[in-house]
Amino acid sequence: MPFDSRFIKHDIMISYSTKRAIVASDIASLLNSNGYNVWIAPNSIPKGIDYIDEIYSAIDNSKIIVFILCEESLDSKWCQNELIYAIKQNKKVLPIQIADVIHPYDKMGKILKPLQRSQILNLFPEYAAKLSEVLKSVQVLLDNNVSNIVNPYPQDSYAFFASDDIFIGRELDIENIHNLLAKNRIINLYGMGGIGKTSLLKHFFAYYSNKDAYHSIHICKYTNSIEETIAAIPFNGFNDAKFLDSIVDPSITKTKALYQRKMILLQNLSTECLLVIDGADYINEMELIPLTTLGCSIIISSRNKYNFCANYHLNSLSEDSLIQMLFAYANEEYNEKEAKYAQEIVKKMGYHTLMIKLIGNYANEMYYTFEELFNDNLLNDINEFDSDEEKISTLFDYSKLNEDEIEMLKILALFPHGISKGAMQKIDRTLLRKCASLVKKGIVNEDNGFSLHQIIIESVIKNTSLDTTSLKPFLSRFIDVFRNIGLEKGELTIIIKHMCNVLKGEDELMVLLLHRFGNCICDINYADLFHVDEETYNSQDMNFYNQKNTDNERFEMYDYSNYLNTKAYELALKINLKDHNLISYILSYIGSTHFNKNDYESALKYQQLALEEIKKGDNIDYSNYIVILNRIGLTAIEVNKLEIARKSFEDYIDTINKQNISNANLSMALFNIANTYYKEKNYDKAESYYLESISKNTDNPETSFGLSELYMLLADIYLKTNKKEIASNYYLKAKHIKCNIIKDKDKLDNFINKYEALYL
Asked: Which terminus of the chain has fewer CB atoms gathered within 10 Å of its CB, N or C?
């Protein structure tokens, strides 16, 4: 049979200029010795085979194309054609630079355009000392979650950096930061709140995004922890959902898994990729130390000076620049007479950028000249205070904000990182109009949404009443829709924690808020346990899963959920709340958090208290009543109180029938009763209830995890009772479903290897 290379598969094909054969051979030897199947000319070309055809077949049949980047390969028509063909075939390409190349995109701009913002692996000048980096990059690229680009890099933050800020007098700072970053891989841009750090970063991005200084620039807001911040970074060519599907260890949270993987991706980047972490205030310096292991350049912005990296102190703008800024925000033409008053105003504002912005917008709004503004009592009142927060709060007082504007300030202070226009519209579209005047006055930032400067948030919290009474219309609407307004789970957790810290109130609305927030935290983490989205978690019967929670980080979140529901319960008792349905919900969720922490005795106690509470009401919510019965049954099984469990499930079925509850899961109740008999080794009873459960099951028979578990349990019963043929049939039914729903090949193979010989 003649040789046919079309059927020969390779991990890696190496494209190189013959003048760099030694380097290519060294890389090939390294990869081969580490178990990779490498194609490299001429060694991989059999005698008598057309050289050109074989090269293109090798590209077709290779997962990764390694392109040795140097002047010789850039000048070579052969290498150019190979690279063009690889890109057209949507192959993953890894350019490895082994020599100093001056402006490679000038020589091969069109060819390299699809890879222009990818990460070139730079082994120059001592390639031999850096060969281990090749293995890391290859490993990342062979991951199925990575597309046809080099090491994934953070997506550029174009949308985020849209800014209407007036930018004056920081041009030298931009240049200085760039130069400092060239000498230090990590720098900390620090300065007082409101001095203009975020605005500077926006313009830094705008300036350098149009130049070749960085392959990629990404900014992210620091959120809660560095782990959460890194985990949330979007990477080109990296699919978060697909990656999470591959996680088989239940002890690893989604956040932790994404953090670990994205740290690896960041470690493989060069300094030509820039990561910006904005707003890293009030955190322990030790939390930032892991950033020192990354390969990319990093800018941190904060109010603090850090010892582990180079620092750039952002000073106040010059007096002349601030005067120009004041004229710009006031929408006034520069003139010498007004400039003198502007100078005095700048002095009284303490040369503080945010104060200049606010006072300038105030002058524009009130149609004040600077002379009139200077003679206004406002400036004297502001000047009496030492802190910026107090000065800013005084501005609020004298800006004559109307009720709608004050309400919006209080609402926006509940969102520490702002809120998108889309999310705001889903809560209440009238709020968009109410924000307009605050945007005009410069108090509210309008980029992709609405946000307050951190100093302003602090001032609003300190000087206004953020309570459930004054914010009742907004909060009542918010708690009904907050899980469906498009917020990511990390954002949602941050907002919940912030609101619970700053909101005040002792009424039913506060009870409901604490309860709903606690439930959300619990549900998110329970869904994470099974690596499914919350919608899937809520729509499936997760009781079919036999998986224990062992992750300490998730335990902490359950503790927080329990804390919120406990606060809700205590407040309900304090205000003598008569809503027995609501109180029972709260008690039941407290029980659920204990269950999720594997504390089954406490869980059972709270579920039984919830049942007692709901029975006190005149208008029982039977949809929740059966949920509590189900939870009592499941918990009782865990502590081997099988009679209690059985009675609870029987009451569940009885209530369904009496109350005609159509959306209840009768199959699940029958399944759980069967489990109690199975645990007692009463296989006849267990078999009867399992079969009845199957008859009542309404899931898709091709993809139902629950049905697959039912079939496996029946297979086990028939095997134990010497009915092997029937056991085999039920095993095959279960296997059919498992093959449809288990995406991880290794996990599926483990299942088959474990049971195939036993049943077949």
From this structure: N
Q: How far apart are CA 522 and CA 589, in angstroms?
A: 8
| Of the candidates 8, 91, 19, 95, the residue with the CA atom closest to the CA atom of residue 46 | 8
Within a domain: 250: yes
Structural domain tally of the chain? 3
- Kind and range of the H or E run holding 93: strand 92-97
Average pLDDT along the chain: 81
The secondary structure of residue 172, as a DSSP letter, is: H
What pLDDT is attached to residue 554? Answer: 59
For Cα atoms 147, 153, 155, give the angle at the middle one, nearest 5 degrees: 95
Q: Which two tokens stand for residue 261?
A: 């993987």
- How far apart CA 93 and CA 83 sit, in angstroms, is 8
The per-residue b/e assignment along 356-392, b for 16 or more CB within 10 angstroms, e otherwise, is bbbbbbbbbbbebebeebbeeebbeebeeeeebbebb
pLDDT at 248 over 70: no
Q: Which residues contact 590 (CB under 8 A, 6 or more apart)?
A: 562, 565, 566, 569, 606
Q: Which class for 719: exposed (0-12), middle (13-18), buried (19 or more C-beta within 10 A)?
A: middle
How far is residue 588's CA from residue 596's CA, in Å, rounded to a whole number? 12
> Both 308 and 188 in a single domain?
yes
> pLDDT digit string (tens) for 13-69?
999 998 889 999 989 988 888 878 899 988 877 766 667 778 888 888 888 899 998
Q: How far is CA 244 from CA 259, 367, 638, 697, 743, in A?
A: 11, 56, 29, 29, 11
Contact assessment for residue 152 and residue 238, using Cβ atoms and an 8 Å cutoff: yes
Q: State pLDDT tens for residues 663-701.
A: 778 899 999 999 999 999 999 999 999 999 999 988 898
Answer yes or no: do 175 and 257 share one domain: yes
DSSP state of 275: E
For residue 109, the one-letter residue type is G
Euclidean distance between CA atoms 77 and 85, whole angstroms: 12
Residues 454 and 373 in one domain: yes
Q: Please check whether residue 701 lies inside any domain of the structure.
A: no
